[in-house]
């Protein structure tokens, strides 16, 4: 009498295992279908505001998409892989931040009338968190009167760009200035500093 009963139990266990496997595969298939059915913006980070060309991505520039699985943090790329990268082409607010539109270094091209000045932020490391492309600064020396005013920051470059808010190396502001401004600033041997007058949007 025990053999038929044991055989019946064995069949029941097998059917339960088969049902469990089928249910698992069906669930995986449904999740995969749901994910692939979403548009690109559903599983990519989006811009929290308009991000202009040459902007160095900061943590506050990146946010989860408003809909789809991405809003819960599912199926999103590595956020830290985006931080510290540079925007190649302007990204409107709420648009996808595509890795294809990010570079590891800024575009250094300037108008013919402008020259780049590389300004070390070693003595002003806190500025690296506020300066970005299109920020406006003044260059000051010992004298309270600025040596150069309303200079646009072309880009900010850091020695440790992987984590935009955790830099351990020196950062540099690339300033765009005229030949006259460049000559004035370079003529001063004194210690210079930057004063932020307007942040970028």
Largest sheet: 5 strands, antiparallel
Low-confidence stretches: none
State the helical fraction.
10-25%
Quaternary organisation: single chain
| Gyration radius from CA atoms, angstroms | 27 Å
Q: What distance lies between the first and last C-alpha atoms, to the nearest angstrom? A: 82 Å
Give structural notes:
The protein has about 200 residues and is α+β, with helices and mostly antiparallel strands. It folds into three domains: about 1-30; about 40-105, Alpha-Beta Complex (Type Iii Antifreeze Protein Isoform Hplc 12); about 115-200. It is built from two helices and nine strands. The strands form three sheets. Strands 5-8-7-6-9 form a five-stranded antiparallel sheet. Strands 1-2 form a two-stranded antiparallel sheet. A hairpin with a 7-residue loop joins strand 6 and strand 7 (about 150-160). The longest helix is centred in the N-terminal third of the chain and has 36 residues, at about 1-35. The model has no long low-confidence stretch (mean pLDDT about 80).
């Amino acid at each position: 009498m025990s053999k038929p009963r044991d055989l019946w139990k064995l069949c029941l266990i097998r059917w339960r295992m088969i049902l469990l496997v089928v249910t698992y595969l069906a669930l995986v298939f449904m999740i995969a279908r749901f994910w692939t059915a979403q548009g690109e913006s559903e599983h990519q980070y989006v811009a929290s505001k308009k991000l202009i060309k040459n902007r160095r991505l900061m943590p506050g520039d990146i946010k989860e998409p408003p809909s789809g699985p991405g809003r819960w943090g599912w199926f999103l790329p590595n956020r830290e892989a985006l931080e510290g990268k540079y925007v190649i082409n302007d990204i409107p607010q709420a648009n996808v931040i595509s890795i294809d539109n990010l570079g590891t270094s800024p575009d250094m091209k300037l108008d013919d009338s402008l020259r780049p000045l590389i300004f070390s932020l070693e003595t002003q490391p806190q500025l690296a968190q506020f300066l970005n492309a299109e920020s406006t600064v003044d260059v000051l020396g010992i004298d309270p009167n600025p040596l150069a005013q309303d200079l646009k920051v072309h880009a900010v470059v850091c020695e440790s760009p992987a984590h935009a808010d955790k830099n351990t190396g020196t950062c540099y502001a690339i300033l765009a200035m005229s030949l006259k401004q460049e000559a004035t600033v370079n003529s001063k041997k004194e210690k210079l500093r930057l004063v932020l007058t307007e942040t970028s949007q």
